[in-house]
UPF0122 protein WMO62_12260
Amino acid sequence: MEEILKQTLLYDFYGELLTEHQKQVYEDVILNDYSLSEVAASLGISRQGVHDMVRRSSRLLEEYEAKLHLMERFVSLREKVGEIHKLAKEQAQDPKMAKIDEIASEILEEL
Amino acid sequence: MEEILKQTLLYDFYGELLTEHQKQVYEDVILNDYSLSEVAASLGISRQGVHDMVRRSSRLLEEYEAKLHLMERFVSLREKVGEIHKLAKEQAQDPKMAKIDEIASEILEEL
């Protein structure tokens, strides 16, 4: 998985276990792609301080995943529901297939 | 949701975030249904100590769910995949439906 996608998913799953401050810095640097210097200036801390904080948050998120594997479970799930969606879509003139397609699409939106 | 089912699911999702000791006591009392007195005797601590420990672990698991809502997301997902499974099963003479049924069953086994 691409690194930025992985970091986004990890944050989506476990971000709420970080402190408010950690969340803010992680969002600015990783999700919103501000530079370390920009974030450092806006928070009045050093560039190195921002860097260390992001690294620590990343490590925490990875530790949660290493223990719980919920992101892994979810990614495998999404792939399978994607397969169902594809199969159902090809035959959506059948009312039951259309219903299955509708449910699969709902699931994919939620995931 | 029934209390014991909820406790089992919460433990399935977040149990790895408890300490080894907390896990052991939680499993004995909640999942394996030993009495507080039995667990207390086997660990050489008071009945009240076991009770407090289980309560604290339950609260921790509930706090993780209150922050992350991952159990809630998975339960909703499982219901929807169950609907797909039901629809596909009714028409499993159609090869595409049979394939969808197979994938849905795989998902339900994983969840």
About this structure: Chain B has two domains: 3-68, 73-110. Residues 40 and 49 of chain B are 8 Å apart (CA to CA). The mean pLDDT of chain B is 94. The radius of gyration of chain B is 19 Å.
